[in-house]
Amino acid sequence: MPQPSQIVNPGPLTLRKCRLGRSELDRLFSVAAEGIPGTSIHLSTQRDGIEFSCPTLSELATAVEQATGSSGQDWSNLGFEGQDADRRIRIDIDLERVELHVSGQDATWVHGRRAVLEQILRKSGGHEPGKARSSWSGNLLGGGVLMAVLVVMAHTVGPLIDPAEYKNLDPHAGVVLGRGSMAMILVGGLGTWITRRAQRPLLLVTGEVPAGSWWSRLSPNEKFAAVAAGAGVISAIAAVFNGG
Prior knowledge:
The protein is α+β, with helices and mostly antiparallel strands. It has helices spanning 22-33, 57-68, 107-123, 136-156, 158-161, 163-167, 171-198, 220-241; strands at residues 13-16, 19-20, 41-47, 50-54, 77-83, 87-94, 97-104, 202-203. A six-stranded antiparallel sheet has the order 1-7-6-5-3-4, covered by helices on one side. Strands 2-8 form a two-stranded parallel sheet.
């Protein structure tokens, strides 16, 4: 048996917001299981306090469906574990994160296998905690909020700092900037909601992750909500610029 000092263990890798369907899961587990005896591989999930464990994903999905009557569209957690005498891989998946553990005696194998698994997860939308992706809608929303704050400050603090200069300001400019900031907030807020829904983490054991544009990744109910919200935003912007 190897001594603890001989085990290479780079520590867990945690990635958030992964969008995993059956194809991504099959690819992930196929790489993780490569070279490890099938009898030493276990996939598991917990449902209503009951743990299910099977050697393959297909068997696990069948066991869960037969026991609970639910499909693979509403899974909230999934685990993979495989090990032999000198190496071990564990993958813990839920709707917020994927945690990857790879260890073994061979440093080349450990770092190489970890890198391949990490690449699969990153291609599925995974990123480190705390590293949120920027988007046009988020930037627009932030810009609108900042502009609104500056307008409010100009009208509240300005008279206190320099009353004479404040009287010379064009009041119409403040109105235009205020309305512009409201429009930016409304459009940016709607865009941020749509973007987050389109990029939300998924765990679809018997289904596939929707591909294509952000619109194609929304469910029918979400599309309906987005259209209704868009109409509301347009009406609100019209009211703002008409002084309503």
